Amino acid sequence: LTAAAAAVALSVSAGAALAQCDDGEMVIKFSHVTNSDKHPKGIAASLLMDRVNEEMNGVACMEVYPNSTLYNDDQVLEAMLNGDVQFAAPSLSKFEQFTKVFRIFDLPFMFKNIEAVDAFQASETGQAMKESMTRRGLLGLQFWHNGMKQFSAKVPLLDPADAKGLKFRVQTSDVLVAQMEALGASPQPMAFSEVYGALQTGVVDGQENTWSNIYGQKFFEVQDGITETNHGVIDYLVVTSVDWWDSLDPAVRDQLATILAEVTEARNGESFAVNEQAKQAIIEAGGEVRQLTPEQRQAWVDAMKPVWSQFEGDVGAENIAAAQEINA
Ligand code: LMR
């Protein structure tokens, strides 16, 4: 088996519907890390693939590789710059090597819900962020939603002091490292595909993620429970390479951009519901979901919000003010 054939075999076994590309069609590879059918990003990527392959038949053919079967998020952006993959949608926490503008999305309690995130992204400041990496060869095309993050650990988490001394997996983001340090916890940056094993074997004690990721990766099976903190957000940038995008025939590029915009609008409107379904599925599967009293939640806010001042220089006080105005 060649490496490529192995990747195809793996992704087929992981439930991906790989397209059959015809001779002469331009192949567009889209690599991502979640499942393809019960997750806001996975569903959106599958819909994008279906529409491209139907509406651009004979011209372009999209292949989606879900579940980290082609690249994980630490590899995919380099692979894109090398021309080995054309589309990806890493979370906004994963762009630290390229830009610091997305750090605002990692700051704890910055956005009260996904609608606030959407409104901020739609603003002039948010839209300009899509072009923050063009000099480094990457172009953001659209923001895709996941949802709000929840905490889980091997022990119940009700008071911030419960997290003290525990090891938490975080995405590779300095803001998230600082957030966990503010709790007196030990942050461990790690690829998404490794988290389940790390929780199971005790390499880490806890993690933070959205309902759809906690369900999709079965984290709840190897944790004491999940606390509904809604303390942060996981959202995505659909990204491509400037060189590849510029090389496209303008009509082809326009059609791709239009399909992507329509898929974005349709699926972003469903992201909250997809996460709610995942939360229900966790409960039905016997997972423990804990709620905080208003006083308990305020204690988490008080413990984590001081992190804002550490990153105000990177994200801009005016942007923090704009985000807070949207929340109001
Ligand atoms: C994570 O690494 O936890 C997330 O960014 C995974 C994802 O793509 O939702």
UniProtKB/TrEMBL annotation:
Belongs to the bacterial solute-binding protein 7 family. This is C4-dicarboxylate-binding protein DctP. GO terms for cellular component: outer membrane-bounded periplasmic space. Residues 1-19 form the signal peptide. InterPro entries: DctP_fam, TRAP_DctP, TRAP_DctP_sf. It comes from Rhodovulum marinum. It comes from the Bacteria. NCBIfam families: dctP (TIGR00787), TRAP_S1 (NF037995). GO terms for biological process: C4-dicarboxylate transport; transmembrane transport. PANTHER family: C4-DICARBOXYLATE-BINDING PROTEIN DCTB, PTHR33376. Keywords: Periplasm, Signal, Transport. It is found in: Periplasm. Gene3D superfamilies: Bacterial extracellular solute-binding protein, family 7. Transmembrane segments: none annotated.
